[in-house]
Amino acid sequence: MFNFISRLIFGAGKPAALPANVLVVDVREPAEFAGAHVTGAINIPLADIPAHSAQLLAEARPVVLYCQAGMRAAHARKMLLAAGLPQVINGKNMATVNRLLQQR
Questions:
Q1: Alpha carbons 53 and 30: distance in angstroms, whole number
Q2: C-alpha 82, offset from chain centre
Q3: What whole-number distance in Å separates Cα of residue 96 and Cα of residue 66?
Q4: 3-class secondary structure for the chain?
Q5: Of the candidates 50, 54, 47, which has an alpha carbon nearest to the alpha carbon of residue 30?
Q6: Domain boundaries 2-102, CATH class
Q7: What's the pLDDT score for residue 104?
Q8: 74 pairs with which residues across the strands?
Q9: Residue 81 CB contacts under 8 Å (≥ 6 apart), including other chains
């Protein structure tokens, strides 16, 4: 599992497909989400991540985050890991997450 996560986060080699039960979270602003988003993703803007960390922890499944370029997703990942979520993946952007979802 660590190798999968490190490849996805750090870009070493080709990332593996995402787990089947992954929860996809778009951390962009609602207007960005309304313009386009990954099918099945939920929208929790970066500023709202702390308020939703307990809800995400209760989901008890891996979480993949994405934004426009990966910076907001990286920040949200740090917050969620600090809140105790065990498996949080920075999927970077929509294109990367869509590609990884198709590989499942």
A1: 18
A2: 15
A3: 9
A4: CHHHHHHHHHCCCCCCCCCCCCEEEECCCHHHHHHCCCCCCEECCHHHHHHHHHHHHHHCCCEEEEECCCHHHHHHHHHHHHCCCCCEEEEEEHHHHHHHHHCC
A5: 47
A6: alpha beta
A7: 80
A8: none
A9: 88
pLDDT per position as a tens digit, 25-71: 999 999 999 999 999 999 999 999 999 999 999 999 999 999 999 99
Beta strands 63-67; 42-43: pairing state: unpaired
What are the residue ranges spanned by the domains of the chain? 2-102
Under 8 Å CB-to-CB from 8, ≥6 apart: which residues? 15, 16, 89, 90, 91, 100
Tokens of 60: 């008890």
* pLDDT digit string, tens, across residues 90-103: 999 999 999 999 98
Backbone angles phi, psi at 66, to 5 degrees: -150, 160
- Bin 70: left if φ > 0, else alpha if -120 < ψ < 50, else beta: left
Classify residue 41 by burial, with Cβ atoms within 10 Å: 0-12, 13-18, 19+: buried
